[in-house]
Amino acid sequence: MRAPTLVELRAGLALAMRDTVAALYSVELERVVLERPPRIALGDLACPVAFDLAKGLRQAPRAIAAQIAAALRLPAGIREARVEGGGYVNFAIERGPFVAALLEPSPPSLPRPGKVIVEHTNINPNKAAHIGHLRNAVLGDVLIRCLRFLGYTVEVQNYLDDTGVQVADVVAGLIHLEGVATLEAARESIRAARLPSRPPEPKGFAYICWDVYAEVGRTYAARPETQAWRAEVLHAIEQGDNETARIAAAVSEAVSSAHLSTMGRLGIAYDLLPRESDILHRQFWTRAFDLLEKSGAMALEQEGKHAGCWVLRLSESEEFAGMEEPDKILVRSNGTVTYTAKDIAYQLWKFGLLGVDFDYERFRPDWSSGAVEASEIPAAVREHPVWRTAHSGGEPDAPSFGRAARVYNVIDVRQSYPQKVVREGLRRLGFQAEADRSEHFSYEIVALSPKAARDLSERFGDEYRLTPEEEKKPFVEMSGRKGLGVKADDLVEMLLDRSRREVAQRREAETEASDQDARAIAVGALRYFLLKFGRNKVIAFDFDEAVNFEGDTGPYLQYSLVRAENIFRKLEERKIPSEPTVEAVAAAEWEEDLWSLALDAASTAEVAERAVESLELSTLARHAFTLAQAFNQFYHRHPIANEPDAALRNRRLAVARIFRREMALLLELLGIPEPGRM
RNA sequence: GCGCCCGUAGCUCAGUCCGGAUAGAGCGUUAGCCUCCGGAGCUAAAGGUCCCGCGUUCGAAUCGCGGCGGGCGCACCA
Q: H or E segment at A409?
C-alpha cells in the first residue's frame, strides 16, 4: 500500500488530534494548526494545541502535550508523537515509505466542477505594454497555471477596450498631429512601423503609439482647445462606418496583436479576447439596464446633483458605509453609459446571467510585432487557439465561452472601488452566489524607483523631466499619458542582452540551443522578479535589481534544476544506475538533511493550494526558492556519481529524482522555462 | 475628512491570515571554497529600539486601541 501524502498525513493528524482532545478534555477544537518546526531535529510537523488548552484546563502546556501524545492514536504513516519545547506535540513521519511513495509519479488532481474565468492583462490597445502590465499578466498567468494544476477548468480572457478614451486619443494624434487621416495611411504606418514625419521605429507600431499618445497629452495641455479632438473621435467611433472608426479599429488591432506577442514571448496565452465594441453592438448594456431597473437596484435620480442620472444606490450597503457620496452613476444625464455600467453587464455575461451572447471568430495574431520575433514565441503559445468576439457572423465551430462558476478579475488595487461596485451590482440583482464568487485579484502597482525615473528622464530628455514633487517621492508612478515608463519589451531586451553575455562566457560557440537557453533565462528572471513580491507591495522598479541573476532570482531556480539534470546526465555517461531501488529507499534509515529535502519537495500541492486560496502567489515563488537553496546545499555536500557506498548513493539518488520532478513542476507553475544548460 | 495598503538588518523583502521554539532570506560588505555531478554555486562573519505608545496574554513582529511617516482610493474618467 502506498504511504499517505503530506496532505493526507495532515488530514489524518488533524482528525486524530480532534478525537483525542475531545476524549481527554471534552473540548471541540475549531481548527488544528500543524506547522513545520524550526529545525527538522524537532520533528516533521508540530501542533501547538496544548498552549491554547492550557488556560482553560489550568494545567501546564507541557503536561497537556504529554497527555495528548500518550493518548493519541497515530494515523498511518506517522511513526511517533512526542513533546518538544514548551508544550508542542511534534510528529515524526515514517521516512522510508514516505520517500518511496514520492518516487512514484503523483496522481493528477481530480477534476473540479465548474468553469473558472480569469480575466487579466486588459491593456488599452493604444500603446506598447509597460512593466506594470507585465505584473498583471504574470500574476494572472500563474493563477491560471495553479488553478489548472489543482484540477479546475479555466478560461482566460483578455478584455480589449477598443472604443475608449485612450484609443481615441492616439487616433486623434495620428490624424491631427501626424497627418495619418485615412485608413490607407494608417495601414501603411502600421505595416512600415513609421509615421510620415518620422524615421522608422524598429520596435514596431505600438512603440510609435507610445510616443504619439504622450505627444497628444502634451498638446492637450498646451492647447486646451485641441481637447475637442477626443470627443470628435469618440463620437465617430460610436457612430461607426466612417474613416476615423476604421482607423481606430486598425490601430487597436495592430497594438493588441503586439501585446499578444509581448506576452507570448513570456509564455502567456489567452483563450478569448472580448471587445468593448461588441459589448456595445450587442447591446449588453440595454439588457443589463432592464435587469437593474426591474429589480429596483438602479433608479433615475430626480433631483440633487445627480438629477437625470441612473444611479446604483449604495448608501444602504454596509460595504460602502461612511462614504460621502456612495451612490454610483451608471448612466450619465446625457444618456451615455459609464465604464462601470458596462463592466456590470460584462460580469453578468461571464456568469451566463445576461441572457445574450457574443459571436466568436478565430484571431490569428501577427506574432512579430517589431519588438518581438515570431521565433521567440514558444510553440505552446503559438499553437494555442485565440478567439475574439466578432462584430458580425462569427464561426459556427466556436467553443462555448462564459457561463463560469467563479470569476477572477486581475486588476490593480486602484480599481478596488469600481470592482466593489460591480460585485454589489450582481448582489442587488439577487445573484448573491455569483457576487460571492466574483473575486477581485488586487495587487499593487509597479512604480519607478527614484533612480530608475532619473535614468529614464536623462535618457529621453526634457519632456520626461520629473517635477520637484516627483523628485521628493519614494517612487514615481508610471504614466502612459506622460510617456514615462519602462516598456515591457525594452526590459526583456535588457535581460536578453545580459543572459546572452552570461551564456557566451560559458559556451564554446553560439548555437540555436544556446540562444534558446539565453531566452529561457531572461524570461525566468523577469517572471520571478514580478512574482517574488507580495501582491500588496508596490514594486519600486530598479534596473539593477531586475536584471540580477544571482541569489533570490529566477536563474537561481533554473540553475538548481539544470544541476539536477546534470547529475543524471553524468550517471548515464558513466553507466552508473540512475534509477533508485524503491525497496531499499523504503527500508532505509533516513538522515536528517536528505530527509528534510525530500519533505520540502513534497509540499508542492499544498503550497499551490494555499497560494490560490490567498491569491498570494509570492508564496509559491518563495517555496521554489527555498527548495532550490536546500538542493544547492545538498548538491555540494552529497555527491552522487562519485559516491562509492551503493546504499548511500541510492538514497541521494532518490532525493535528487524527487527534487528534479517537483522543481520542474514548480517552474511550470511559475511559467519559468527550463534551460537545457546554464 | 472617510476607507484600504505599506513601515522588520545599509538596501530590497519573507514572516502578520491562524500569537509560541534562537526574528529569516537575497543584495551589498568582509573572509574563505573550483584536480570534484560546471562557481548563475557553496561556507562563514559582521549587521535588528520588528515605526512609536498603551492594552490583551503565561507569551506580541503577529491581536486590539491611539498616534507617526509614506502610498493609493473616495468622478456624470477609465
A: strand A406-410
Residue with cell 505552446: A380
Any atom of strand B under 7 A from CB of A336?
A: yes
pTM of the model: 0.96
Closest CA to A560 of A612, A512, A487, A632: A632
Backbone CA torsion sign across A92, A94, A98, A99: positive
Give me the phi and psi of A442, to 5 degrees please.
Answer: -95, 145
> Using alpha carbons only, what angle is made at residue A597 by residues A139 and A90, rounded to the nearest 5 degrees?
100
For cell 439596464, what's the residue? A289
| CA-closest candidate to residue A160, choices A135, A124, A132 | A124
Cell of A230: 477626443
Is strand B within 7 Å of residue A551 (CB)? yes
Please give the Cα distance from A301 to A617 (Å, whole number).
Answer: 43
Q: In whole angstroms, give the CA distance from residue A198 to residue A142.
A: 39
Closest CA to A624 of A573, A582, A579, A672: A672
Phi, psi of A449 (to 5 degrees): -65, 155
Task: At A191, give phi and psi (nearest 5°).
Answer: -65, -50
- Kindly report, residue by residue over A471-507, the tens digit of the pLDDT: 888 999 999 898 999 999 999 999 999 999 999 999 8
Asked whether strand B has any atom less than 7 Å from the CB of A533, the reply is yes
| pLDDT value of position A135 | 98
Reference A29, options A66, A76, A64; nearest CA is A64
Instruction: Give the integer Cα–Cα distance in Å for A244 and A250.
Output: 10
Among positive and negative, which fits the CA dihedral A164, A166, A170, A175?
positive
The model's pLDDT over A532-560, given as tens digits with 9 standing for 90+, comes to 999 999 999 999 999 999 999 999 999 99
ipTM: 0.97
Spatial distance between the Cα atoms of A206 and A259, rounded to a whole number of angstroms: 8
Tell me the CA end-to-end span of chain A in Å, nearest whole number. Answer: 40
Q: Would you state the cell numbers that stand for residue A449, as one nine-digit string?
A: 524607483
Separation in Å, CA A661 to CA A257, A326, A417: 35, 52, 42
Helix (H, G, I), strand (E, B) or coil at A359: strand
Closest CA to A157 of A358, A381, A350: A350
Q: Residue A240 and residue A228: Cα distance in Å, rounded?
A: 19
- Over residues A175-188, the pLDDT tens digits come to 999 999 999 999 99
Q: A116 pairs with which residues across the strands?
A: A154, A406
A212 CA, B71 C1': Å apart: 30
Q: Name the residue among A354, A322, A531 with its Cα closest to residue A434.
A: A354
A566 sits within 7 Å of strand B by its CB: yes
- pLDDT single digits (tens) A300-356: 998 888 899 999 988 777 777 667 677 899 999 999 999 999 999 999 999 999 999
Residues linked to residue A295 through DSSP beta bridges, in sequence order: none
pLDDT for the residue numbered A463: 67
Q: In the structure, how far is the CA atom of residue A53 from the C1' atom of nucleotide B69, in angstroms?
A: 40
* Cβ atoms within 10 Å of A599's Cβ, excluding its own: 22
Confidence of residue A206 (pLDDT cuts 50, 70, 90): very high
B chain positions with any atom within 7 Å of a protein CB? 1-6, 12-15, 17-18, 20-22, 24-28, 36-43, 57-59, 70-78
Name beta bridge partners: A389.
A360
C-alpha cell at A375: 521565433
A474 touches strand B (CB under 7 A): yes
Angle between helices A646-670 and A618-637 (to 10 degrees): 160
